[in-house]
Specification:
The protein is of the alpha+beta class and 100 residues long. It has three helices and three strands.
């Protein structure tokens, strides 16, 4: 459980290149799974399937999670099901962007 908390903290340091909100509060992270061997698998999406900066964002997420002490390996699953929408954003993100 502590490792997942540390991963969330790391993901909150990764910002979407086009929106000034971190990927976790933006709602792009759908799941964080850590197995018995401390491999973290992140299931995530993008705000739009045709995001031109997808490679950079995935690399930033990978690097942030890989750097968490205790994480032995990282896997990324990119999905568009369900599609992302504004309802997935945290209250903090909605406030930051002026939607509340």
């Amino acid at each position: 459980m502590n490792l997942e908390h540390d991963i969330v903290r790391a993901l909150r340091q990764v910002y979407d290149p086009e929106i000034p909100v971190n990927v976790y509060d933006l709602g792009l992270i759908y799941a964080i799974d850590v197995d018995a061997d401390c491999k973290a698998t992140i299931t995530m999406t993008l705000t739009a399937p045709n995001c031109p900066l997808v490679d950079q964002l995935l690399q930033d997420v990978y690097d942030a999670v890989r750097d968490v002490p205790g994480v032995a390996d990282v896997g990324l699953n990119l999905t568009f099901d369900p599609p992302w929408d504004r309802s997935r954003m945290s209250e903090e993100a909605l406030l930051e962007l002026g939607f509340l």
